[in-house]
Amino acid sequence: MNFHVMTLFPDMIYSGLSQSIIGKAIENKHISVETVNIRDFTEDKHKKVDDYVYGGGAGLLMQAQPVYDAHYAISEKIGRESKIRTIYLSPQGRTFDQRLAEELAREDNLILLCGHYEGIDERVLEEVVTDYVSLGDFIMTGGELPAMVLIDTIARLVPGVLNNDNSAREESFSGYLLEYPQYSRPEIWHDKKVPDVLLSGNHKNIRTWRQEKAEERTRIRRPDLYTVYERLMECRKVLLKDKLHHMGMLALIERGQAKLLHHDSRGILLCDRVGGSYMLTVKSKEAGEQILQEVFSKNPDKIADIGLFVTHQEYMNEVVQSKFDMKLLSGCRQMSYTKKESLPKKNADIRKLSLQCLPIIIENYDLVEEEILAKQLAGGFIHGVFVEDELAGFIGEHEEGSMGMLTVFPPFRGRGLAKVLESDLINRTLQKGFTPFCQIFDGNDISVKLQEKLGLYSAKEKVWWFEKSKSK
Fold it and tell me: 117's torsion region: left (phi>0), alpha (psi -120 to 50) or beta?
């Protein structure tokens, strides 16, 4: 991901971001941070970028011309025809939070505009800015510190920035719960002892304790977040009544990725805050039409953002196709591993794959866009099996949490490597506390037989995946 910071103080940005995790992420090329000095684009021979305000008033205002030319130079360098998401750090903007960070983390490029003095000429803001973002109801001397806060928060969500695959997903706010209390050595400090359950070695009890403490802390400190969490738990109860059919939606809730758009007796509509897909289950076609109308009439601009949509009832297919101009990818058979026991470990050389493997993965797997494959590789979500130090096949985890991408190269087929790869992924998914599941396109009978051998159960009803129709 690339950050482009328009500022009068580039050294301030570099010095603030060159340390710790973000500095290492820049060094390892997981992200890039470019500063553009607005003063370099002024036409004034004295490098002046500000002037007095028309109509009177205290202070000076940044002029439109140098800001516009700096922005134009960045856009030209990136080479994108469409408008690049440009954020003006201003107390008048939308308050920055984790939800917005997750939304912005899906961009390839972000331009951050740092204001100074009494602000920036309104005319250039109208031309270049797409988002106004605030850190809160207070005023700072400039936009550099807020810009660094945004970069730090967003960068943590970029695959590869954090060493732990699930760190960004499990920390505070990611699942609408604050983080549970944590302890380190010594066991007793100031007569305060580490809770016994954390010393027990019983991982099930530890997970239960952490969940309870996270709920308790959120309820007391952030009742607003807890209200959203409670609504998601209500949805979860409904979805569990037909668990196998709704495993994809349940996975979003389990992983803290679910954004709740609608929930009542008529149905549930969720959005994946990581991958951006929408998932709908309803009682009737009429109910589904009503829900979609209610949700998107309030946010008509969101329709353009819908890239993937999943229906759980076939009678909604025609509605989704026409309303969102989408085409059917395939019906899918959803299969889940509902046991808690790990599968027997096989003696195999399985490794986490790096971005260097992207060309060979693209060559052998074309059901996912290259950009997403690169993102999953960088995040450590694709593993390969090696035979005599040669890559023989791979398997991965899709953005919404399902197992997939299973591929064994022709020279290595017939050796049981597909079973080895999926067994390993099932065990790793169980270790994270999640339910392993997959979605198999119609006609892939070989994959269905493999899932049955591994002990996965199939839902009685299919789900249907749609994608945005390509413009002609």
Answer: left
HEC-encoded secondary structure of 64-130: HHHHHHHHHHHHHHHCCCCCCCEEEEEEEEEECCHHHHHHHCCCCEEEEECCCCCCECHHHHHHHCC
Tracing tokens 């759980």 back to the chain, one arrives at 312
Q: How far apart are CA 224 and CA 227, in angstroms?
A: 5
Cα gap 361→381, rounded to integer Å? 13
Tokens 């591994």 belong to which residue?
A: 454
Residues 178-209: pLDDT tens digits? Answer: 889 999 999 999 999 999 999 999 988 998 99
- Over residues 10-32, the pLDDT tens digits come to 999 999 999 889 999 999 999 99
Side by side, the strands of the sheet bearing 32-37 are 32-37, 2-7, 109-113, 86-95, 131-134
CB 421 within 8 A of CB 351: no
Question: For residue 168, is pLDDT > 60?
Answer: no
Q: Rounded to whole angstroms, how far apart are CA atoms 205 and 210?
A: 9
Q: Which residues pair with 311 in a beta bridge?
A: 280, 464
pTM of the predicted model, to two decimals? Answer: 0.78
Report CA torsion sign: 412, 415, 420, 422.
Answer: positive
